[in-house]
Amino acid sequence: MAASAHIAPIVYLAPMAARPRSYTFEPPPGVPWRTGKDEMVAVAIDDARSLKGGGDLDREGFALVAFEPRFSAWDDVAALKRDYYPEASEFVACRTGAPLVVAFDHNLRSSAVTGRAASGVREPAKRAHGDFTAQSGGKRAREELAAAGIDPGILARRRFALVNLWRPIRGPVLVSPLALCDARTVAPDDLLLTDLVHPNRMGEIYSLRHNPAHHWYYVPGMRTDEALLIKCFDSDEAAAARFTPHGAFEDPTSPPEAPARLSIEVRTLIVFDA
To answer: Is 43 within 8 Å of 8 (Cβ atoms)?
Structure first.
């Protein structure tokens, strides 16, 4: 039975003079995984199941959907890319009506992990963030189309978006659930440019500064037949929901014996009709 909405801490980034930085791999000795000071703010987090239709990508910036994939070999990275990426793309295309969807990246996360395990599984991302910025979203979309053998020039004529398909592998989720901020309640100044350091390149994401106007949601006891679509970038600058901050939080109602969260998120590029 789903728990009611409650007060829980969201991890924001405190204002800072320097540009913050996060590593996707273990940094050199003496270098922190992330720079900047976390600011934990207790907020009301509402039940996403209470939203009309479970939310909407073009309204709140996220949507709770029914999805139980055929794929199950989560520890086989090659099979995951070969078989789950197409299944995820097909599902996202069906839900959004987009004629072109390309799945291009994924993260496996477990609350039993600190940092990143040798298997590649990462700990939940606890600082509220957005996966792409106004600059990095378009850049990544062009790169992924080129990698897929598709002319990136088509993006000049079409609206496109980067949408994550997030779901638990083990359920119900009782530890480190995912919180999502209604994108309409986020002011431009709340989004802080942050360098994301990869082994072979530099990326850019948004960290989130606290604003009491933010409206947060989560899915209590999220099941394995449920998934979240999260819009991380929209090329339409007039879109009501263009960037959707999200992050794991420590649920004060989690039972002490609850199993660790295990989840997967697949990033997809969706390209709409001209």
So the answer is: yes
Strands 129-130 and 216-218: unpaired
SS3 86: helix
SS3 258: coil
Nearest CA to 266 out of 124, 108, 153, 57 is that of 108
Residue type, 29: P
Is 36:14 a contact under the CB 8 Å cutoff?
Answer: yes
Written as tens digits, the pLDDT of the chain (274 aa) is: 344 568 999 999 998 888 999 888 888 999 988 888 999 999 999 999 999 999 999 999 999 999 999 999 999 999 999 999 999 999 999 999 999 999 999 999 999 998 888 888 999 999 999 999 999 999 999 999 999 999 999 999 999 999 999 999 999 999 999 999 999 999 999 999 999 998 888 889 999 999 999 999 999 999 999 999 999 999 999 999 999 999 999 999 999 999 999 999 999 999 998 6
Q: What is the DSSP letter of 114?
A: S
Token pair of 114 as six digits: 């600190």
Question: DSSP secondary-structure letter at 139?
Answer: H
Which one, of 63, 229, 250, lies nearest residue 174 by Cα? Answer: 250
Between CA 81 and CA 116 the distance in angstroms is 20
Find the helix or strand (DSSP H, E) in which 37 lies: none
State the amino acid at position 260 in one-letter form: A
* Rounded Cα gap, residues 164 and 28, in angstroms: 30
The letter for the amino acid at 61 is G
| CB burial string 193-213: b at 16+ within 10 A, e below | ebebeeeeeebbbbbbbbeee
Q: Counting runs of H as helices and runs of E as strands, what totals does the chain give? A: 3, 14
